[in-house]
Design goal:
It is a single-pass type II membrane protein. This protein is mainly β and 188 residues long. It has helices spanning 2-11, 26-33, and strands at residues 40-50, 55-64, 75-83, 89-90, 93-100, 106-113, 115-116, 136-144, 150-157, 163-170, 173-180. The protein is 10% helix and 44% strand. The strands form 4 sheets. Strands 1, 2, 3, 4 and 7 form a 5-stranded antiparallel beta sheet that branches. A two-stranded antiparallel ribbon has the order 5-6.
Length: 188
């Protein structure tokens, strides 16, 4: 798991800002000492069967503690894995998935598994004592997109600081709700 996380922390823009949580050179020390089990805590997850690929997608919460104490784990991340029909993990696999960009444009993208998922969340690496940042308790369902394909929808709990109410009007129908997101990294 650390071998997956380290390159993402160094090279993936969705993770580089999380590097301070892991302290300089701590991850290589954990690998060398073979103490990953005392710093990373993986919880049960949620899964869906992806019929188009013939595999299970499993998403689990992983907590990290510098001190090796589960109750002092200030950050959680979501870890995605692929399993075959017999629940044997398939590693180093790429799935071609249809993604949607910010303007609604569709394109195909290869996603490699296992991987930590780029889920935005509020965090402040200067305040770690009695703080818990990141997604928790992931749940997953399949939803049918506008192209008639089933795709996983992941829902999780997390502390957010940027919540906005909205009202949307389409013809005579008015609906409302809450949007969580925005520039979460720069919120106090």
């Amino acid at each position: 798991m650390i071998d997956i996380l380290m390159p993402q922390l160094r090279n993936d823009a969705a993770f580089t800002h999380l590097l301070p949580f892991f302290a300089a050179n701590l991850l290589p020390q954990i690998i060398k000492a073979q103490t990953a089990r005392t710093h990373f805590f993986k919880f049960a997850g949620a899964s869906v069967w992806l019929e188009a690929y013939g595999v299970h997608l499993m998403v689990s919460r992983v907590m990290f503690s510098r001190l090796g104490r589960k109750w002092e784990s200030p950050i959680s991340l979501l870890y995605a894995q692929i399993y075959d029909a017999n629940w044997e993990e398939i590693t180093n696999i790429e799935l071609a998935v249809n993604t949607m960009g910010p303007a609604g444009e569709r394109s195909w993208r290869n996603l490699k598994f296992p991987q930590f998922l780029p889920v935005p969340f509020y965090h402040n690496s200067l305040f770690l004592k009695q703080r818990w940042y990141g997604p928790e308790d992931p749940r997953m369902i399949l939803v049918r997109n506008e192209m008639g394909q089933d795709e996983p929808l992941i829902v999780s709990n997390a502390d957010h600081r940027n919540i906005k109410d909205f009202v949307e009007r389409k013809g005579n129908i008015e609906s409302g709700g809450r949007v969580v997101g925005g520039d979460l990294e720069n919120e106090d």
